[in-house]
Amino acid sequence: MKVAENLKNIEEKINEACKNSGRHREDIKLIGVTKYVSIERAKEALEAGVIDLGENRDQGLLDKYEVLKDVPNWHYIGSMQTRKVKNVIDKITYIHSLDRISLAEEIQKRTKEPINCLVQVNVSGEESKHGVDPEATLDFIKELANFDKVKVAGLMTMAPFTDDEQVLRGCFRKLKNLQLEIQKAEWPHAPCKELSMGMSNDFMIAIEEGSTMIRIGTALVGEEL
Question: Global pTM?
């Protein structure tokens, strides 16, 4: 199916979720995750009107950047190795996976301008997932005040892969509550306005629970690679 057709279906669901929760469509940023598709398919997403694209590996991002340049806003959504920061830092708009001080130190060293970072929180507690422990998140963000090139724009999490709606809602609500705690602190370096949560299988629930960024891959562009 063409990306434009997929996008139409996704937009209908976004609008439905916004209606269910009394939110506005313009408050939700759709990130097309292109890590499993070709440059041509990513280009098709752009032409369909998706202006934010997400990659989870430096080489995948660099390959697509070589062709698409900075036409899309690039989001680095995967776990970022410290040694790979220098390869992509000047090409991306958001990092969705800040989870340790050593990574903040490398970002500080490699970027000329402050960059939007989302702190990845392991809300589900699954060992297979990266992220800061929810209980340690406030202290971690407080420490990030030492890095003037790191702007804590928000939080990110990955929910468990399950059809259990209550489990998903609980996960997303926990991240939303963390966001509210951080905002209450009024730290200048951490406005924390964004919540990156929700993927192809659970984005409607994520929107209803407060997500401002949804990361959609399979439902939008499919899988080719």
Answer: 0.96
10 Å Cβ neighbour count for 214?
26
Give the amino acid at 168. L
Distance CA 57, CA 220 (A): 19
The phi and psi torsions of 134 (rounded to 5 degrees) equal -55, -40
pLDDT higher than threshold 90 for residue 9? yes
What 8-state DSSP symbol labels residue 37? S
φ/ψ of 161, rounded to 5, equals -85, 95
Could you give the C-alpha distances from 52 to 3, 48, 77, 78, in angstroms and in order? Answer: 14, 12, 12, 15
Query: pLDDT tens across 103-112, in order?
Result: 999 999 999 9
Instruction: Provide mean pLDDT across the span 127-140.
Output: 93
Of 198, 185, 54, which is closest to residue 123 (Cα–Cα)? 198
- Kind and range of the H or E element at 216? strand 213-216
Helix axis angle, 58-68 relative to 39-48, nearest 10°? Answer: 60
| Paired tokens of 176 | 């939303």
Q: Tokens 């292109």 identify what position?
A: 34
Tokens linked to 78 = 């995967």
Kindly write down the DSSP assignment for every residue of 6-30, as one continuous string: HHHHHHHHHHHHHHHHT--GGG-EE
